[in-house]
Amino acid sequence: GGEKHVIGSDLQRRPVIYMCMKNQILPGAQCVDQKVVTMLQAIDSMPGGVEDMVHIWDLHGQQFRLSDLNPAPLVRMIQSQEAYFAARLHETIIIGMPRMATVLKDAVWPLVPEKTKAKVRFLSEEEAQEHIK
Q1: Strand order of the sheet with strand 53-58?
Q2: Full-model pTM
Q3: What is the DSSP string of 49-67?
Q4: Which of 57, 56, 50 has its CA nearest to residue 13?
Q5: What does the alpha-carbon distance between residue 111 and residue 79 come to, in Å, rounded to a whole number?
Q6: What is d(CA 118, CA 53) in angstroms, rounded to the nearest whole number?
Q7: What would the pLDDT profile of 96-120 be if each residue is shown by its tens digit?
Q8: 34/129: higher pLDDT
């Protein structure tokens, strides 16, 4: 898995969590706990009246290992988000998804609730820059 940090907030004061996969060291299966901790940090940073957060997953330059194609860690992350953080997700922006990641997405996408699917955007780097402005 990659690095995941609360990097600030958007114009509506929602925390923005940025995950960069370019310099990943550990397999995704070993990073689920860190992702949950980051989401808890985002919740702690929410000002009064703010209930949700934005996720930016930057997959540009991600290097895949065979173990990264195992859908189990991603399924665990989706389940934890749905169990504990479902109402906290405003939007997830996935930037530069590699072709190999499409196989993983296709394996877990049927498990993702429709309400969550509506909050996910798959964008190129250029589209993401325009969307975030």
Answers
A1: 3-9, 15-20, 53-58, 89-95, 120-123
A2: 0.79
A3: T---EEEEEE-TTPPP-GG
A4: 50
A5: 9
A6: 15
A7: 888 877 888 888 889 888 888 899 9
A8: 129
